[in-house]
Automatic annotation (TrEMBL):
Residues 192-215, 230-241 have a biased composition (Basic and acidic residues). This is Uncharacterized protein. It holds the Pfam family ECH_1. It comes from Alexandrium monilatum. Belongs to the enoyl-CoA hydratase/isomerase family. Signal peptide: none annotated. Transmembrane segments: none annotated.
Amino acid sequence: PSLWLKAQRKQPPHGTALRAVRCRLMEAEIEALKKFGVNIKPGHRDGYKYQAKGAFDKATQVRPWEVPLPVQIGWDYEAVEVCENFEDWNNPLFLVEVRQGIAYLTFNEPDNNNSFSPGVSAGLNDATRVLRKRPDIRIATLTGAGRMWSAGGDPRGFQASQRLAGVIGPETRPAPQPAPKSSPAQLEQNYEESKARPRPAEGPEERHGSQEHRGVASQRAQLEESYGEFGKKAEGGEHELYGGLPGPMIVDNEHVESGNTKNIRSAVQGAGMFYRWATIPQFSMALMNGSAMGGALGLLAGSDFVVAVKSAFAVLSEVRLGVIPAVVSPHVIRAVGTSNAKRIFTTAENLSMQKAMDIGLIQRIVGKKDEFPAVVKEIAEKIQAVSPEALASAKAAIFATLNQPMSEKLMNFVSQEYTRIRKTTSCEEGMRALSENRPMPWEEKNIDIKE
């Protein structure tokens, strides 16, 4: 104890010095214990695997360039959700138009404010999957049909998962009840009846029914009633467009059928959607034809360039609902910085486009959406002059080195990456074209901008 106190009075050591002090103290304690007949073997700690809670060894940290994030999390396998390629695209809720060197993507569910419904989310996931295999596409734009760009997470999905969990509906959380067994014929009849109902109104009561009605229906019946419209159920009992509960689930419903694990899995899937958009190899442009809310800001922050109409607004309104924008936080914080993120996360401030540009969320403001083509053309002229492979590698390097501390590992990675790029075919062709005083090979085909 006396040795320990003496060490404490000195300036606290760090790193190697700290480990040396600990070793000396341990040796002193071993010698002191011998006086009491306690003999501790030198290798007494061998095989001791206990690690205190919260302890973190930076030496064992996996760097993004060592094991790519998609591999760490399991996003490296991307299944086809609705459409396999752009040539046979048939998702009416998410439109794709491909021209030479550019892909125009459009949220197309204006009646639902272009929220991330199963169809819209599937379209975006399919589009980013295809874009990774299309080096001929240099630019990808993302806009919305109707008056809003996107309202983010689908409120119908939030409401359905909350009702299923018992968070809303009856005043007290009901005990889990077994779902009533329905024959395939009964399920088919329920589905046909749901299609005949008028389209839900905008208000929560009109959209989902009264509290009294929700309290009477069983949990499973409520879910079927809310989401029969999203897709006819197949023989296996799953929806055609979505195999589970619709929409991102934001409540803890571990006491009902889906379980807390499914909540987490759904959130991870949502995080994957934002990550895939932010890391596509093309130059990404968000064309904000209208306002953006909630999770939609994650897509804005993940875009390489955002141009918005002056009348639009942007807001992270999750805290008003008692939740937080956690899934999009890495992208938004990266775009606007910590101080600005704290303000817009915690106050749900409705940002004008000027404020959004001041904090770095968007890069250009136009008077109306008719001015989008001119901005896209301006950007396309710049992208036309750069190597597609170099552009993709530059984006990947930014994500790999973002917020990484200066270290030998980091220096080795960036040096190796620079060397790798210099050996690529595109770099060799570019250098050869430069020496021969002729246009770069990637400048031969003009990007076909839609007027």
